[in-house]
TrEMBL record:
InterPro entries reported in the protein's UniProt record: NADH_UbQ_OxRdtase (IPR003918), ND/Mrp_TM (IPR001750)
GO cellular component terms, semicolon-separated: mitochondrial membrane
Keyword Cell division: no
Domain NADH:quinone oxidoreductase/Mrp antiporter transmembrane: 1-169
EC number of this enzyme: 7.1.1.2
Localization of this protein: Mitochondrion membrane
Name of this protein: NADH-ubiquinone oxidoreductase chain 4
Reactions the enzyme catalyzes: a ubiquinone + NADH + 5 H(+)(in) = a ubiquinol + NAD(+) + 4 H(+)(out)
Job description of the protein: Core subunit of the mitochondrial membrane respiratory chain NADH dehydrogenase (Complex I) which catalyzes electron transfer from NADH through the respiratory chain, using ubiquinone as an electron acceptor. Essential for the catalytic activity and assembly of complex I.
Membrane-topology annotation of the record: Multi-pass membrane protein
Lineage: Eukaryota, Metazoa, Chordata, Craniata, Vertebrata
Family listed: Belongs to the complex I subunit 4 family.
Any one GO biological process: electron transport coupled proton transport
Statement: the UniProt record of this protein carries the keyword Transmembrane helix: yes
Length: 230
């Protein structure tokens, strides 16, 4: 629903073109400020699924700001980030569910140290968190760079807030990975079932489309740049 709302903003904003762009200013600043606020909430979360949900809200702040700026780069970045983070948040929720099925707890402190007994699942956790941080050369980085560049061209002051939001995103992503996969294994998680083939297949079906989009990002970003270049 978050991504559907972002798409709706992209479709509706061109209809409001007669309205002066100065009216968008407070909404863009509010969206970027929301990134910092929701990222700060993520830093305090102990519930794994709540952390992932707030992470999605944080990333949508960039999408809203880009959709309101209405430049070819910002719209291409918004569409790229919506699709990329849609897959990323989905795989994170799937991984959180695999943890919950085995530990019966969403509290990260009660489901930590799983690297010792589920090493292959830790690899999926690492890949998902690196994509959540928009580490190169993921499609997430392409979308975020296009959006941050567009907001910087619109107003230089936004670089401070977007930079802070990016730093906080990397911080809580590493916190989520290290808390769930490292540390000492609790006594209640010693006897748990191993991972299954369907779970690894599910993670592969999330990661593979992102790798394919990385090789040809124009599939999702091209229509916006072509439309505005005519």
């Amino acid at each position: 629903l978050l991504k559907l709302g972002g798409y709706g903003i992209i479709r509706i904003s061109p209809m409001l073109n007669p309205i002066t762009t100065e009216l968008y200013y407070p909404f863009i600043i509010l969206a970027i400020w929301g990134i910092i606020m929701t990222s700060s909430i993520c830093m305090r979360q102990t519930d794994l699924k709540s952390l992932i949900a707030y992470s999605s809200v944080s990333h949508m702040g960039l999408v809203i700001a880009a959709a309101l700026i209405q430049t070819p780069w910002s719209l291409a970045g918004a569409m790229g980030l919506m699709i990329a983070h849609g897959l990323t948040s989905s795989v994170l929720f799937c991984l959180a569910n695999t943890n919950y099925e085995r530990t019966h707890s969403r509290t990260m402190l009660l489901a930590r140290g799983l690297q010792l007994i589920l090493p292959l699942m830790t690899t999926w956790w690492l890949l998902a968190n690196l994509m959540n941080m928009a580490l190169p050369p993921t499609i997430n980085l392409t979308g975020e760079l296009l959006i941050i560049t567009s907001t910087f061209n619109w107003s230089n002051l936004t670089l401070i807030m977007t930079g802070t939001g990016t730093l906080l995103t990397a911080t809580y992503s590493l916190h989520m990975f290290l808390t769930t996969q490292r540390n000492k294994l609790p006594t209640n998680t010693i006897n748990i079932s191993p991972t299954q083939t369907r779970e690894h297949l599910l993670m592969t079906l999330h990661i593979l489309p992102m790798l394919l989009l990385l090789m040809k990002p124009g599939l999702i970003m091209g229509p916006f740049t072509c439309h505005y270049s005519l």
